[in-house]
């Protein structure tokens, strides 16, 4: 076990210990039952539950400031608790998805206030959705068969939106280490839904005489199609910067920043919800 695995296992034990000491594991079991009834895999954690304890406040601060280090151990701990609660619900290789809500205080911003000091941390951005892309599948793991050796091989793929590990290449392997041809078994590959959103600050909050600022958002899995253009939303996610390439080399200018979402809440849901009377329902 290398150092990164040791740190990851240590953080995982810290989360499990915190859930047991604060009795949040009892509340999580209710959330797990709700997940099973609604056929979902995402648990929404309230940051207020973390702030009720000194150790929890420290964990919340670490999650907000350094989510790339603490998000995956949290997912591992919740996955273990889910498998203990119901061993048959999650398939092999599946993990519990996690989202956040609650008081973000100074980290609740608009696209105009989303500055460089928030890069690499978790924020809550409020605005209005202006554009949604089509929902497309993104490969997570590919499976290949070699007719010569009659063996299968699998390869996992990660990009900048992943919470664990470095990004990998996106090219499918066509030959194995010995040069034998490989056939891709598309039916055995694993995919997940992927969608991009564009959100800008609401008109009443934009600066007079200036164009509204926008931010690109990436939503995946069960968060796709959770909103449509015109919706006012609050998106919680990790703010990341993508370096640009100039003639095949990397430079220090970051021209593209994105928000990797883990929770999407509609702000105008209650205001625009239809009011059905008993007469209409009959």
UniProtKB/TrEMBL annotation:
One of its GO terms (molecular function) is single-stranded DNA helicase activity. The keyword Metal-binding does not apply. Its EC number is 3.6.4.12. It catalyses: ATP + H2O = ADP + phosphate + H(+). One of its GO terms (cellular component) is MCM complex. Its main location: nucleus. GO terms for biological process: DNA strand elongation involved in DNA replication; double-strand break repair via break-induced replication; mitotic DNA replication initiation. The keyword Hydrolase applies. Residues 112-242 form the MCM OB domain. Residues 13-101 form the MCM N-terminal domain. It is found in: Nucleus. Keywords: ATP-binding, DNA replication, DNA-binding, Helicase, Hydrolase, Nucleotide-binding, Nucleus. Transmembrane segments: none annotated. Belongs to the MCM family. Acts as component of the MCM2-7 complex (MCM complex) which is the replicative helicase essential for 'once per cell cycle' DNA replication initiation and elongation in eukaryotic cells. The active ATPase sites in the MCM2-7 ring are formed through the interaction surfaces of two neighboring subunits such that a critical structure of a conserved arginine finger motif is provided in trans relative to the ATP-binding site of the Walker A box of the adjacent subunit. The six ATPase active sites, however, are likely to contribute differentially to the complex helicase activity. Component of the MCM2-7 complex. This is DNA replication licensing factor MCM3. It comes from Nicotiana attenuata. The gene is ROA3_0.
């Amino acid at each position: 076990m290398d150092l990164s695995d040791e740190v990851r296992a240590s953080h995982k034990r810290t989360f499990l210990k915190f859930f047991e000491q604060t009795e949040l594991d009892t509340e999580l079991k209710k959330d797990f039952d709700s997940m099973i009834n609604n056929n979902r895999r995402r648990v929404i954690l309230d940051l207020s539950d973390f702030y009720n304890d000194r150790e929890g406040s420290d964990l919340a601060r670490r999650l907000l400031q350094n989510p790339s280090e603490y998000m995956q151990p949290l997912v591992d701990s919740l996955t273990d608790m889910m498998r203990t609660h119901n061993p048959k619900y999650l398939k092999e290789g599946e993990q519990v998805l996690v989202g956040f809500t609650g008081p973000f205080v100074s980290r609740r911003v608009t696209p105009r206030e989303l500055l460089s000091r928030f890069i690499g941390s978790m924020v809550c951005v409020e605005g209005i959705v202006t554009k949604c892309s089509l929902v497309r599948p993104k490969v997570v793991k590919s499976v290949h068969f070699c007719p010569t050796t009659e063996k299968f091989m699998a390869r996992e793929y990660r990009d900048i939106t992943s919470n664990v590990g470095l990004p990998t290449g996106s090219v499918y392997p066509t030959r194995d280490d010995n040069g034998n041809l490989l056939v891709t078994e598309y039916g055995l590959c694993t995919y997940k839904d992927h969608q991009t959103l564009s959100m800008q600050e609401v008109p009443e909050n934009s600066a007079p005489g200036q164009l509204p600022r926008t931010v690109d958002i990436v939503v995946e899995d069960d968060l796709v199609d959770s909103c449509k253009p015109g919706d006012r939303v609050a998106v919680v996610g990790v703010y990341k910067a993508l370096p640009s390439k100039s003639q095949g080399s990397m430079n220090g200018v970051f021209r593209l920043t994105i928000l990797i979402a883990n929770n999407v809440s509609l702000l105008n849901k209650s205001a625009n919800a239809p009011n059905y009377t008993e007469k209409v329902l009959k």
